Structures are given as structure tokens and as C-alpha cells.
TrEMBL record:
The species this protein was found in: Pseudomonas pohangensis
InterPro entries in the cross-refs: SelO (IPR003846)
Enzyme active site: D252 (proton acceptor)
A UniProt-annotated Pfam family: SelO
Cofactor list: Mg(2+); Mn(2+)
Protein name: Protein nucleotidyltransferase YdiU
Length: 486
């Protein structure tokens, strides 16, 4: 276990030079107070969890201090936002403090979000508010606990520094961890500014640091793109299987690593609704729940365009064509497991689609449905869940087919339950739970945030006395409008 002062830095991205990022020091926020730290994320840096209590922890992650071996940089990138190319993006409020190498030799970017203005801030203040910092913290650590690839969050620090959004709020900082902060938009930036030499340097950097296996391939750049497609197919399948709605799938928010990145007005589905739009400024529903699949494909095509100087169009096309079948195979596999089906049968896809159609418009709690389906033998479970559906005749037909299908897998109920509970969370990060914790935190009480994070860090394991976190949301809780400002 290490002390904070013992971290080892090796700043590979910073060494790419000023064409890729600009040196900027964090601008501290006043009277820093630690809101929450993630012991699991601290472990990634070999940090003793007790270090979070030291005053220097809050100071470091509120921009008051910096390791002498860190090199704080704002990265330049561009990207497609809601389908339109925006040539001027970049780290407007976050800084890459440096790359920490842990004892296992793994690299972790330390990225401080809300660290003040940079050359890429445009007219904005470079800050992040407490509510959005807490939301990103909770989501990153929860998605990880669910087994969904994601950036991580080390901690959130609150302050007395005022910031203006719809009203006056307080600035906070979030320390994000990821093996890389390179986005699709980084490649687009060099492509659209016709800096093909820099584009090649970026490619070489990303391949050697993050995709070393592709260097063994006859055509490493083509292999790299294929890997990005594969990883995205796996990530999106998990989002869809678990009802995660990202909300702002702009190409500047898409990680090159295929991890969930840049959390805004995200939401997990309460009632199943394939048309759900969690981003209230998304008028056309471009980033609605079911659109996440075609949009991921669209985003990959935008990345492919930026790689055309170095990879033949036919190869890019071939890899793009892999996305949908790969996505479908992952999704089918996950959903089978969520339904407790141990083997594969021909009509499984149909069985899943029929279930979702019945859920649509029936106000069935998407997450709890699967958990409850595993609690009892199939016949008893469907009988208990029947009342939740509006189309009872349709549900009875589905339940009949599901029970016969389920009986094909010869397993005891104990075994079936064990397998199902291992993939079906009892505790879901619901908007209203996050909102209650945020309101307490805004009033200076961090116990609710910490409690919520602790329960959600083991979402599959029933925790005595925590029933409140496993309940269906109240009506008001289902229709919260989460502010898109952050
Ligand atoms: P986002 O919507 O958070 O993904 O951000 C889109 C772009 O706006 C990125 O280039 C951000 O760095 C920038 N940005 C967002 N909020 C701020 C802010 N408060 N100050 C400066 N730049 C910001
Ligand atoms: Mg962003």
C-alpha cells in the first residue's frame, strides 16, 4: 500500500507535446472538503484507503497541490455533437494531471474535472457543479460493479466556490481514472485539420500504449479499428441489457477504449421504455435508449472516416459491418443469462423480443423483473409477476413458452437462482436515489451519498437492512427532470 506522495508518474501523453495538449495548472476551489472516495478505485493506484482521510487528499484533488512529477495538461479534440461536426472542443474544464503507474505496471490517467478554464473553455467557466460530479462518481463506480466497462472515479471534492448555472451553485471536482482519455474526437481533430502527421503519431501512441496486441498483426491500424468496433459492440450490448441510457453519445464522449465515458444526464430505465430519452435537450430523441445501438455504429463510422488516410476504406467497411452481428451476439448472450437460460435455443431471440414488447407500455420495472424471476421456480415466478402486465393473455403465452424453455435446462432452483442473481442486480442506481443523496450533499451532509455508493458497490448481493434501496421508485421519482447543465 502506498502513500499519496509515493505515486509514480510516467506522462506518455504529455510527451507527445504541444500539438496534442497544452500545459495548464489546476485552479483551486476554496475550502475543499472530501465528499466521497472510492476504496476500490484507490486500490487501482495501490493507495491505502485511509489516505482519503488525510487533509492533503482533499487538497490534491481540489487543485491546491500537485505532485512535482505530474504534468498537468488540457487535451485538444473535436467531435460530432448531435450529428454536427464541432471543430473546437478539447478539455474545457478537465485536466490530465498525469499517468500513474501502479505496482502491477498498469497505467492510470488522473483526470481532474472542474479544474478551471483552459484554452478550450470557449466562454464557459471551467468548473463542474457538485450534483454532476456526484452523479458521475456514482455511475462510474456502479457500472464497474455491474461489470460494464467504464472510466472510474477516485473521489469528489466539494468547495465554497460559487458557480452559476440556472441558479448559484457550488463548484466541485471529480478525479476520474481511465487507462486513456483519448476519444474518437481526438482522431477527428487531426483528420479535419488535415494534420496527417500528427494523426499518425496519435495512432502510434494509442497502439503502443493501449492496443499492443494489434502491433503483431500484419496491418496494425486496421486491426486497431476492428478492436475498437468489437469493444464497442460489447459495451453497448451491456448498456442495452442493463437498461443504461447514456444520453450524450457525441463522438467527443466516446472513449477509444470502448469504456463508458463522460457521464451527463444518464439514467437507468426504471419502467422499461425503449423510447426513453434521458437528456431533456435531446428534442429529436437522437440518443434515446433504443437508438444507442445505431448511434454507436454511426459514431464508429465517424471514427472510420478519420482513419481513412491510413486504412483502406474496404477494411474499415468490413469492420463496421461486424458491429451489429457482434452486438446482437453479446446482447443475446447477456439476456439469456438474465432470463436464467443456461443453453442456447433457436427461439431465444424471439422470446426476449416478445418479453420486451409486453413490458413496453406496461410500466414494468425493468431491473426488478429479472431479479424476481430468479427468486422462485419459473412457474411460480411468472405467476407472481403476471399482475404487472397489461396484456395478460400475451403475458400468459409468453410465460408458458418461457417455462417450457426454462425446463430444457436441467438445473435445480437453487442453482438457477444463484446464476440469475449473479447477473441480475437487486440494487439499481436510480435517478431519485441519486437525487436525494445529492440534495443532502448540497446541504453539506455526505452520509447519504456514501451510503448509496456503499450499497451499490455490491449490487448483486442482498444486504440486510437495505431494503429501501431495492424498492420500486415512487411515481415522482420516475419522472425527475435531471438538469443537463453540469
Ligand atoms: P460535455 O457536454 O461535458 O461533454 O462537454 C462538451 C465540451 O464542452 C467539452 O469540450 C468540455 O470540456 C466543454 N465544457 C463543458 N462544460 C464546461 C465548462 N463549465 N467550462 C468549460 N468548458 C466546458
Ligand atoms: Mg464531454
Amino acid at each position: 500500500m502506498k502513500q499519496l506522495t509515493d505515486l509514480t508518474f510516467d506522462n506518455r501523453f504529455a510527451r507527445l507535446g504541444d500539438g496534442f495538449s497544452t500545459a495548464v495548472m489546476p485552479k483551486p476551489i476554496a475550502e475543499p472538503r472530501l465528499v466521497i472516495a472510492s476504496p476500490a478505485a484507490m486500490a487501482l493506484l495501490d493507495l491505502d484507503p485511509a489516505q482519503a482521510q488525510s487533509p492533503v487528499f482533499a487538497e490534491l484533488f481540489a487543485g491546491h497541490k500537485l505532485w512535482s512529477t505530474a504534468q498537468s495538461r488540457a487535451m485538444v479534440y473535436s467531435g460530432h455533437q448531435f450529428g454536427q461536426y464541432n471543430p473546437q472542443l478539447g478539455d474545457g474544464r478537465g485536466l490530465l494531471l498525469g499517468e500513474v503507474v501502479n505496482d502491477a505496471g498498469e497505467y492510470w490517467d488522473l483526470h481532474l474535472k472542474g479544474a478551471g478554464q483552459t484554452p478550450y473553455s470557449r466562454s464557459a467557466d471551467g468548473r463542474a457543479v457538485l450534483r454532476s460530479s456526484i452523479r458521475e462518481f456514482l455511475a462510474s463506480e456502479y457500472l464497474h460493479a455491474l461489470g460494464i466497462p467504464t472510466s472510474r472515479a477516485l473521489c469528489v471534492t466539494a468547495s465554497s466556490t460559487p458557480v452559476w448555472r440556472e441558479k448559484q451553485e457550488k463548484a466541485a471536482m471529480l478525479l476520474r481514472l481511465a487507462p486513456s482519455h483519448v476519444r474518437f474526437g481526438h482522431f477527428e481533430y487531426f483528420y479535419y485539420t488535415r494534420q496527417h502527421d500528427q494523426l499518425k503519431i496519435l495512432l502510434e501512441h494509442v497502439l503502443s500504449c493501449h492496443f499492443p496486441e494489434t502491433l503483431q498483426q500484419p496491418e496494425p491500424y486496421a486491426a486497431f479499428f476492428r478492436t475498437v468496433v468489437e469493444r464497442n459492440a460489447g459495451m453497448i450490448a451491456r448498456w442495452q441489457a442493463y437498461g443504461f441510457c447514456h444520453g450524450v453519445m457525441n463522438t467527443d464522449n466516446m472513449s477509444i477504449l470502448g469504456i463508458t465515458f463522460d457521464f451527463g444526464p444518464y439514467a437507468f430505465l426504471d419502467d422499461f421504455d425503449e423510447k426513453h430519452i434521458c437528456n431533456h435537450s435531446d428534442d429529436s430523441g437522437r440518443y434515446s435508449f433504443s437508438n444507442q445501438v445505431p448511434i454507436a455504429h454511426w459514431n464508429l463510422a465517424a471514427l472510420a472516416q478519420a482513419l481513412t488516410p491510413f486504412v483502406a476504406a474496404e477494411q474499415l467497411r468490413e469492420s463496421l459491418d461486424l458491429f451489429l452481428p457482434l452486438y446482437q451476439a453479446h446482447y443475446l448472450d447477456l439476456m439469456r443469462r438474465r432470463l436464467g437460460l443456461d443453453s442456447a435455443a433457436d427461439n431465444d431471440q424471439q422470446l426476449i423480443e416478445r418479453l420486451l414488447q409486453l413490458m413496453q407500455g406496461s410500466a414494468v420495472d425493468y431491473s426488478l423483473f429479472f431479479r424476481r424471476l430468479g427468486e422462485l421456480p419459473a412457474e411460480q415466478a411468472v405467476a407472481r409477476l403476471r399482475d404487472e402486465f397489461i396484456d395478460l393473455a400475451g403475458f400468459d403465452r409468453w410465460a408458458h413458452d418461457y417455462c417450457s424453455r426454462s425446463a430444457m435446462d436441467k438445473r435445480s432452483q437453487a442453482e438457477r437462482q444463484q446464476h440469475m442473481h449473479a447477473v441480475n442486480p437487486l440494487y439499481l442506481l436510480r435517478n431519485y436515489l441519486a437525487q436525494q443523496a445529492i440534495e443532502a450533499a448540497e446541504a453539506g451532509d455526505y452520509t447519504a451519498v456514501r451510503k448509496l455508493h456503499a450499497v451499490l458497490s455490491q449490487p448483486f448481493v442482498e444486504q440486510p437492512g437495505q431494503q429501501r434501496y431495492a424498492e420500486r421508485p415512487p411515481q415522482w421519482g420516475k419522472h425527475l427532470e435531471i438538469s443537463c447543465s453540469s
